[in-house]
Each structure stands twice: as C-alpha cells, then as structure tokens.
Amino acid sequence: MALTWQVTQQDTLRIQDRASGGPVIWVCAGILLLVGSKFAWWLLQALADMAQAVLHADFGYIFSYLFGLVLLIVMTAAFVLPGLWMLFARSVVEVHPAEGYVSEMRDYVAWRKTKRHDISDVAVVRGTHEVSQKRSNSTVETYRLDVVLKGDGVKEFLAAQPDTRERAQELGQLLAAKLGVPFQDLTSKRDSYEDILRERQGMDAEGRYKDEVADEEKS
Fold first, then answer.
1. Which of 27, 133, 168, 205 sits at 20 to 30 Å (Cα–Cα) from 219?
2. Domain extents for the chain?
3. Is 0.70 surpassed by the pTM of this model?
4. Residue-level pLDDT, tens digit, the chain, 219 residues
C-alpha cells in the first residue's frame, strides 16, 4: 500500500490510504456492483410499472407493490454503495510518518481538540529495557513520545512506536510544530525513561520529591 503522510487543514494528523486495493478488492467490488446493477434494473422496471399505475389511478396495484419497491431500493443500495466505497473511498488511519505502524487516530484527534490549549510541550524520551534471549540478556534502546499537559502531567502518545532516534525526532518535531509548542529532545540522555520522568517531576532516585527531602534535611 502506498501511504502518504499529510497534515490536514482541520489540524488533525492523518494518513490517507491511497492504495488501489489490489485484485481482491477489485473483484469484490465488481461482484457487489454487478449484483447491485441487477437489482437496480429491477428497480427501474418497478418504478416504470408504478408510474403507469399512478397515471391510471390504480391505487390497489400501488399499495400491493409498495413493499416490493422499498425492498428493491434497500437491496440496490446494499450492494451498490459498498461496491462504490471499495473502489473510491480512502480510509483514514493513523500511521507513524517513517514506519508502518497503523492504528486508530480518532481518540487522539478528539483528545487534541479538547486539550490543545493545555499542552505545554512535546518531548521525545530515550529509554532502555532488558530483553531475554536464549542464554543471555541484551539491552535494547526504546523511544517514546510524550505530550506534556499543564497541570495534568505527562501523557504518552501510545500510537507512535518509533524504533530509532531519527524517527522519534521527526514525529516529535512535527507534532510540536502543528501544536505551536516547544519541542524537547531528551534522547541524548542515557538515563532510563523512569529516571527522566522522576527528574522532570522533581523526584530523586528513590522516588521521593526533592522538596520534601530538603525539608526533612532542614528539620
């Protein structure tokens, strides 16, 4: 599939899937449209008969075939509309601009619209975690994208799963630019994400707030 990154005028980050869909989609759409065209032909014939009945004031015929006419309309729409959608519609999904991770964006878009003016900055954080293999453990670097809200702490942008520093920086800068807030690149630090989070929240290595520790030392 050919995925194109773009920022829409509605200020929502979206990916439009411009793929042709492949042969399976084309075959399914063709079958739906073929069956739908048959129902459409029957519908036209029924409409012609109904028009003649109206001209001749044959209300008995009109009422007796009214249900069949409605059924033909429903069946025609049931086959034609999905077929047209499969041919021409472009589904909107969220994707990382440099990766193939695809997920829903609706919740994040709705959240951005309500919380946009409370956002103070966007930050990219570097962390590490241990990965167990057959006979040894290895340390793997991970990156995460954070959106900092005023008075509401740090919210991780879970939809983004950047696996390199460059990709994390790319998405973070793009989000910050669209939101009109500062961008913080914290990927140069080798601390784990938990250490960075504690530092930003004013906590020491043991998870205690530094202000409280200072007060205890004074007392």
1. 205
2. 19-89, 113-218
3. no
4. 233 333 333 333 333 333 334 566 677 888 888 999 999 999 888 888 888 877 777 777 777 777 888 888 898 998 888 888 777 654 433 333 333 333 333 444 444 554 444 667 777 777 655 555 555 566 666 777 777 766 666 666 655 556 677 877 877 777 777 667 788 887 776 555 556 566 666 655 555 555 565 556 666
